Amino acid sequence: MAVSEMNFRTALRQLHGWLVAGSSLLALAASPLHAQPAALDQVVAIVNEDVVLKSEFDARWVQIQQQLASAQGPLPPEAELRKQVLDQLILENLQIQLAQRAGVRVDDNQLNNAMGVVAQQNNMNFEQFSELLQQQGLYEATRDAIRKELIIGQFQSGAVNRRINITKQEVENYLRSEAGNAAIAPEYHVAHILIPGNATDTRAGELAQLLYQQIRDGADIRQLAASRQISGIALSGGDLGWMKIEALPTVFATVVPSLTSGEVSEPFTSPNGYHLVKVLETRGGSELKQDQFLVRHILIKPTEIRTEPQAEALINAIYQRIQNGEDFADIARQNTDDPNSMVSGGDLSWISDGMLPPDFMEHVKSMPVGSLSAPFRVQTGWHIIEVMDERIQDVTEQNKRYQAEQILRERKFENELQNWLTEIRDTNYIDIKDEVLTGKAADDTNADKAAAEG
Fold first, then answer.
1. Would you place residue 388 in the very low, low, confident or very high pLDDT band (cuts 50, 70, 90)?
2. What is the CATH number of domain 1-185+399-454?
3. Per CATH, which fold does 289-394 belong to?
4. Residue 253 and residue 250: Cα distance in Å, rounded?
């Protein structure tokens, strides 16, 4: 791929994702996110039942020019750039339409969270970011643009991931490969101290034990290493940064994996002297133990024929029946609005974080085993829950396979995304009206010129 094409595609991706990834507020203030249609606007493309306006194209074109201002090397011809910018707008418009038909929605909580991310990446809190946008008259336009980005992202993820199939054999092959083992291996943030000497050097051994106790009592191993000398004995070492096992010094390779985050090793020796190693942090890796809860519940939701007060009254009546001794499972089978647990008497089996909405899980985790909750309201509706048991489950093998599958899925996603975008573009009605934007007029002029010369 030519440098110019890479620069342009990178600019398009950056522009498409700037709201989620965070961008310069100066650039945001300089060019509106969504230009208001002019009094005499033009339709440059019809996309099914919607249109792309020239004002939208012009605003996007200005942004692309800003993105490419610092690009290195020659750029593609302007006609080609304009065609690609228009194509990007068409695809965005089309995806929004398809997402709306599929019922994809972004609520205010999701929107505020996304705006909070942008604010943090611009060194502001949510309130400061919102106030700045309001001062610049960009608040509503920014929220609309972020909402659009979130909708497109959710719709793409669902539509494209359904097309990707990762087989068990692919996962197994990847886990057996050197690349797979390296990708899911944990990383360790390590610091260490070396006290020169040998196994018979009493002073060095005593200092190593002293420093070990000080670090266990809260002393900073990096500050001790930086002192370079204690009790007349030279020290070396410090912060080694983040490392995978294969990158660690050989003498540390058997010690570090046995340490938890924040733990320091007892002094050990090598030909160079006495070592103390502390794992400051860990990240990645497949080892995982989960708190799991055995739960059953009853869900009552407001419906078209049941108002919110009626739903609340019903859940309270059910709670009183359980308190009076009626069987939880029988009541759940007869009354719950959760079709997935209705037959099992409300039994959700073993659940853990991430399996159910966070607001529901917060109630579960706050309850002791054997307890029954009073009715409570969360986003999904009114609930009564009973926590029947709790356990810590080692899910390392499942987590290892999950990580491998996600890596393989990400590898396939971009290619499948492009195939999907091509398909939806080819199977929906698109009529480009402006010949200058498509480059058709320029192509015709060049053909006429060539014919005349011939």
1. very high
2. 1.10.4030.10
3. Chitinase A; domain 3 (3.10.50)
4. 5
